[in-house]
Amino acid sequence: MSALLDLNEFHWLMAIVQSIDVGVVMVDREYRVEIWNSFMENHSGRTPDEVHQQSFFTVFPEVEEEWFRNKLETVALLGTPAFTLWEQRPYLVRFKNYQPITGQEDHMYQNVTLIPLRATNSEVAHICVIIYDVTEVATNKRQLQAANLELKRLSSTDRLTGLSNRGHWEEALRLEYARHQRYRTMAALVMFDIDHFKKVNDTYGHQAGDKVIQGVADLVLAHVRTNDIAGRYGGEEFAVLLPDTDIQGARLFAERLRLAVEAMRVEHEGVVIPVTISLGVADLGQPSSGHEQLIEWTDQALYSSKKGGRNRTSLHQVPA
């Protein structure tokens, strides 16, 4: 009677294993498959008879064998469960994703639990591998992270030009100045504005003015290095922070940019609009009281360029 009861319980357990919506694979200590439920059959396309007594690594050659062997051996040695999450590894076995809501993902994201199964002699003779489909959770989290990153980018970016907005740029300058104070690093600042920009708006209209600003911004992005911070300071005025650069290096950058803008062609309604810029340059090669003073020095140099006839670069002059 007891044996019949045990047999009935076994059938009930097998029915549950077959019907639950998770993958269940039982392997022996040689990693040979002994139990393979309907979830595994449906997603792999392989029946239990096809995989029975085959090595798990033969059935799933995409699994990193050394890593997973170590996982299984640790579970068997310690006799305690182990887990892997999709954030650590997107999946254990590569199954296609068939969920209609999250159909944009080409594979199923998985969490995995490894459970040691003890024999009557208390030794771990088998390990149960349970695979959970967490694609919807993973996709939602990834979309949320992407949305947050985009919001962060938008909050620090000038929408018209794609350059840093003034708040983000000034914060970068403040941090660079703090680095200068601590490590005595060099940094230079270039500020410039578009010559006679009001005349462009008055003559050709604000759409043409926007096109000019965008064209100048594109040239700035083409000339800066990866660690430079270029920003729209306001209206037609721009600023570029050049870390680890002195005033002479910044002057070369400014002149290259000035000549590039002068050669630029901005067309609006069949008319080519001439564009030039005036630039001011300063660096931290002299004692300063804060990052605001570097802005003040650079602005003074920019004023000198405007006063001197525009379309030129001026350096901040250290008082005698």
TrEMBL record:
Recite the UniProt keywords alphabetically.
Kinase, Transferase
Q: What class of enzyme is it?
A: transferase
Q: Identify the residues that the record assigns to the GGDEF domain, covering every copy.
A: 185-318
- Pfam families (UniProt xref): GGDEF, PAS_4
Q: Kindly give the InterPro entries that the UniProt entry links to this protein.
A: Diguanylate_Cyclase, GGDEF_dom, Nucleotide_cyclase, PAS, PAS-like_dom_sf, PAS_4, Rev_trsase/Diguanyl_cyclase
Task: Tell me what reaction this enzyme catalyses.
Answer: 2 GTP = 3',3'-c-di-GMP + 2 diphosphate
- Asked if the Swiss-Prot or TrEMBL record annotates the protein with the keyword Kinase, the reply is yes
The answer, when asked if Kinase is one of the entry's keywords, is yes
In short, the EC number is 2.7.7.65
Q: Which CDD domains match?
A: GGDEF, PAS
Q: What is this protein called?
A: diguanylate cyclase
User: What's the source species for this entry?
Assistant: Pseudomonas benzenivorans
